[in-house]
Specification:
The chain is α/β, with parallel strands linked by helices and 425 residues long. It is built from 15 helices and six strands.
Length: 425
């Protein structure tokens, strides 16, 4: 038993992890065949296992410092056969951990109802002369999932429900909502944000689905008297986020109010100076709708939940441990499985902390955070053989039988078989 480091294995593991990260990011971005996030995350971790495992295996094949030359001569073929098993293990563990992470506890509901609250006051003639807000709302309706329900509330001096909650399961309903939004026009009057949010809550209360959560997207370009300490109580008690969009706000008090409404309800505030960007912003809000995976920022009611923070970190620790043990299985070495497994536990802890405190919803920043987590997994596992000593020791029966046979064959010389036909003196 010795403490060893294979620097080539470290380099190849990092390289393999980097390549796997790129493939995983392409998977996250494209979501082929509309696969559920549970499978997407499981496949992501399986790709990471394949990249790191392949890199480690190639490094030991070139320079067998950890397993020894005898492994390369006798068991290299077996290691190639065991590589897919590690990939399957990581897929299973990753899928299971994502399933647990997506479970709703403490009365949290998956957001399925979206209420769009659109400012139609007279000032919109200057802020949005081309009525880009209506086009943006129409585009969002076309992009929503079939299990969503949508409603539309407009407001100026008064607030009105122009479209109650309606399911988007059918194409006819989508077209109906789109036509209603397309028929809207800018009116005269002030900005009654209080009345708008009251009507939005009335709409939400019409839904009888106990398991369906809701959120609000509110667009405005003005300011009105609004008491965030009292008028948002129902939103806060029910965990309903109000995402606010401030369009071409010259009055800083308007931006401050919208920012306070979003912060008080767990939503996000978006400051938009060009009405042409509203479609992009609406889509960004929707893309964050109820997003809760191990590899992305929580953007639902669990955003600040310490429970889900702990679950994510524990999940990454289990994924890291499984990856380390899987590498030990590839090399058919129980000592490496122990060393890599303990290293994987430590690496998973670090990766979990990086993801939990690094993800912030910005695409470029989150991409770099995930890259850091993958490289930390590869690096710590590779270096942990210097912390936990390793030696030869087969995991499989086949390996032990072959080792025993090789040992017995080299213990001594066998006497030649006596020739019974020969005659002696």
């Amino acid at each position: 038993m010795q403490r060893k480091i294979n620097l080539l294995l470290l380099c190849f593991s990092l390289l393999g992890g980097g390549i796997a990260f790129v493939l995983g990011e392409l998977l996250l971005g494209s979501r082929p065949y509309d696969l559920p996030s549970i499978l997407i995350i499981g496949i992501y971790f399986a790709i990471v296992a394949l990249g790191i495992g392949l890199g480690a295996l190639l490094a030991e094949m070139i320079s067998p410092r950890l397993n020894g030359l005898s492994w390369k001569q006798r068991y290299l073929g077996l290691s190639w056969k065991l590589l897919p098993l590690t990939v399957v293990i990581l897929f299973g563990v990753g899928t299971l951990m994502e399933f647990v992470y997506e479970l709703n506890f403490g009365g949290i509901k998956t957001v399925k109802n979206v209420v769009m609250v659109i400012d139609d006051s007279g000032s919109m003639q200057q802020s949005d002369p081309g009525n880009s807000r209506y086009a943006a709302a129409q585009a969002l309706v076309q992009q929503m999932d079939t299990d969503n329900q949508v409603a539309v509330v407009t407001f100026s001096q008064d607030a009105a429900v122009v479209q109650p909650l309606i399911s988007l399961r059918s194409t006819e309903n989508r077209e109906k909502v789109s036509e209603i939004i397309g028929s809207l026009q800018t009116t005269e009057g002030g900005t009654n944000i209080s009345g708008a949010l009251t009507e939005a809550m009335n709409v939400i209360n019409t839904d009888s689905g106990a398991s369906r959560g809701a959120m609000v997207i509110m667009l405005s370009d003005g300011f009105s008297q609004f008491d965030t300490a009292t008028e948002l109580n129902e939103y806060k008690s029910r965990g309903i986020a109000v995402n606010t969009v401030g369009l071409a706000l010259d009055d800083p008090s308007g931006a401050s109010l919208l920012r306070d409404i979003a912060a008080a309800t767990g939503g996000q505030y978006y400051d938009v100076t060009d009405a042409g960007r509203l479609g992009e912003v609406f889509q960004q809000i929707y893309d964050r709708l109820g997003d809760r995976t191990l590899l992305t920022e929580r953007s639902d009611a669990t955003a600040d939940s310490p429970y889900y923070a702990v679950v994510r970190i524990l999940a990454l620790m289990l994924v890291g441990t499984a990856l380390g043990i899987g590498l030990g299985i590839i090399f058919d070495n129980r000592h490496l499985a122990k060393s890599f497994g303990i290293g994987g536990w430590a690496a998973g802890l670090c990766a979990g902390l990086i993801l939990e405190f690094g993800l912030d919803g910005h695409s470029v920043g989150d991409t770099l955070v995930r890259l850091s987590a993958v490289l930390v997994l590869a690096a710590i596992i590779s270096l942990f053989t210097y912390v936990v000593p390793v030696g030869e020791g087969r995991l499989s029966r086949r390996g032990r039988r072959e080792a025993a046979a090789a040992a017995s064959g080299s213990d001594g010389f066998h006497s030649p078989r006596r020739n019974r036909n020969s005659k002696g003196f």
